[in-house]
Amino acid sequence: MDFDALFRQQLDALRSEGNYRIFAELERHCGQFPQARNHGRGAPRDVTVWCSNDYLGMSQHPAVVQAMVEAVQAHGTGAGGTRNISGTARLHRILEAELADLHGKEAALLFTSGYVSNWASLATLGARIPGVVILSDAKNHASMIEGIRHSRAEKVIWRHNDPEDLDRRLSDIPAHRPKIVAFESVYSMDGDICPMDEIVAVAERHGAMTYLDEVHAVGLYGPRGGGVSEERGLAHRIDLIEGTLGKAFGVVGGYVTGSAALVDFIRSFASGFIFTTALPPAVAAAATASIRHLKASSSERLRQRDRVARVRRALDRLGIPHQANPSHIIPVMIKDPVKCRMISDILMEDWGIYVQPINHPTVPRGTERLRITPTPLHSDADIDRLVSALGALWTHCALSRAVA
Asked: What is the band of 403 on the pLDDT scale with cuts at 50, 70, 90?
């Protein structure tokens, strides 16, 4: 069989649909975020990045950079293997204690990414709790979906952010069966925030364990950056809080927090933890510095909210349609994969603005968009240029404008 021909056929189908992914080749320079060097077509040129998940610019914060540099010089670049074989670095334990404190939990466990922490934890819980049913929000992240699928546990999908539907579906499950309610706080593509109070109350009423993904909220919400659960005073009522170090904290890695028994259970049985090389100690040191800074400082969060509000107001003035939500994520709706890719290319080539198109399968067909994430480091001039570019392209591409 000609496997390459099969591969090319399916890749060509992706291109014809407008869903073939092209990665921008960017060179970031410390201290210049959100500016970066684009090494795409033609001569390298500077661009402004508008779609980074480095939400607060912490990857280039001096304290975070210094912590990583000092740790590399002190301990080298790698962990040497899994924590089971090579041992747990002291910096891993310090970071886990910092994360447990962030969420008011007894313990925390590090993973190599937020994807892995979701996949491994849900797979382990679903596989090892006898007779468990996992109730998953309809818009949960692929990492949660894959973890549940891998567990082979019974799965029930409930309507997105709908506590009443969750209540009905929990009522259909025999009371004696263990149940896990899995959901997110901030959903990354639409930017909506879950009705956490109601979801937690429903889960408690049915004796269900709560599993909360705070990946797009940690560092950004709550007085210490503990996420939406901290902001709403609910963290103590949620059994497991999962998060990432690779977004607002500006480093890389994932984690779960919960009771000592729960975390030890996952540590002891999750293959995605046991058999994976640990995070480099220097990464742990940088993450610890970032978390400690954001626990004490609200200036980055407040500045980011100001930037988000300014972008939204400017888009409204020009009638550029964007989904209304209470979060830091601004989805500018194109609703056509080819136009979405084209607009992204023109922004990069003609305006020096980088916004990656979001197409299927990340979002449903017909909801293609540009996902804009303002940071504290975007200037007024950056915002004005972005919105001017979008206004010009809306006219050029004959796209519909929002009605005031």
From this structure: low
